[in-house]
Amino acid sequence: MKKIYLIIVLIFSLVPLYLSCLQDENKQSAYNVTVDLDYRAFQPGEVIKLSIKDISDIKVVQSRFLGKKYCFGKGRNASEALVFIGLDLGLKPGTYQMDISVLYDDGKIQHLKKKISVVEKEFPVKRLWVEEKFVTPPPKVHERIRWESELLRAVYDIFTPQWLGDGKFIIPSEGKTVPNFGERRIFNNKPRSSHSGVDITSPFGSPVRASNSGKIVLANDLYFAGKTVIIDHGLGVFTLYCHFSRILAKRGEFIKKGDLIGEIGATGRVTGPHLHWGVKILGSRVDPFSLLSLKFE
After folding, report:
1. Average pLDDT, integer, range 210-220
2. Cys-Cys crosslink for 114: which of 88, 98, 217, 264, Cβ 3.0 to 4.6 Å?
3. Chain centroid offset of residue 159 CA
4. Cα(26)–Cα(7) distance, rounded to whole angstroms?
5. Could you tell me the pTM of the whole model?
6. Are 173 and 206 in contact, with CB atoms under 8 Å apart?
7. For domain 125-293, which architecture applies?
8. What pairing do the DSSP bridges indicate for beta strands 125-128 and 184-187?
């Protein structure tokens, strides 16, 4: 009888210990967050989307890559966090480390490391002929060009901590798309900066639509880019639309994916009517087609 009593006491004394171990095991598994990477390639001009599907017990997530800090923000689904990292057009090939820090509600911190091996990409050279004033601007427009450069820097410094996009990106025009991102351009026999977007040729006056939802942060006539619209999609992602004949959007308004924002034109430094479609992610120049490849729930 005493043996049975002792066994029962022993069992009941071990139950709390077992439950405690079980709780510790569950708590430990809660700190093994999964970060999903979505990308087309690890090459200059590409984008990487990082996402965490369940952030119910997470307070803050940050990533550091190539000397920049990227803060995860909420997606369209409030339980999801995501961030976009651009591999700039001028990035040299090599293996780079990405550090991810996850701060939980209870104060615990989890650190993750990922190696990103960027491979080389060759960009062609193209010669173009335009009005000389767009290659060597006359002194009277120098102040305008300087002011517009400062304006663009201020626009791209905006950071909206919420993702404003709605699903996948779309091509903004139905014209013929020229995959000329990264071309090293020579205007009138004078080397100039690389082409940081893609061109879509279409008849004068053809409609141009927002490639995703967001906020209009610029709608101006610029010296080199002509009549231009820039959309902030949140989390440091911007799309750029240049050379309009008419701007049909206003700065400060929120627009939906597919909304009309302008018409094809030939303003600024051009050789004919077309749309220049570009993307910047926290200052990195990205091929718009890499955005089109991303998946969104």
Report:
1. 98
2. 98
3. 11
4. 28
5. 0.85
6. yes
7. Distorted Sandwich (2.70)
8. parallel
